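Q: I have 152 residues here and want to know how they pack in 3D. Can you give me a structure?
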Amino acid sequence: MSLEFEAGKFIGGAFLCIFTAIIAIDIFDRLTPAINEVDELKKGNKAVAVFLGAVVLGICLMVVPSLYKFAKISEGPLLGADLLSWALMYAMNLLGAIFVMYASFAAIDAYTHRINEIEEMKNGNMAVAIMLAAVLVSISLLATVAIWETVI
């Protein structure tokens, strides 16, 4: 494989990592209209930062298998088909990861019906944010194991 091709994959992979994080923040912010995460971050709300950081981490963890597949693409006559196959896998992983994070948050919110997680985080409640972060990252790790099975 050529050095240029490998360098292109490295740059492409780095771009995809940044893109994934930005998309994760943007879409999750849109899915939770009761709180504007970006505005809360601008105010210095550490609880929202912990929560949103866990969401981004969880989504990125679930997208890692598709980045692994991207790194394994090689030059050759099937490059176009390999890229298309990878792009479909990446899109499915990204959308699936966002769904898993949102559904997990909704399930936790329903289970802990006596706690209004959004309001608690708006008020800077770090205990709620840390609990949510731990649960979301744990769920994403479990989901990532299942996703890896589709790659290997």
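Q: Anything worth noting?
A: The chain has six helices and no strands. The helical segments are 3-31, 37-42, 46-71, 79-111, 117-122, 126-151.
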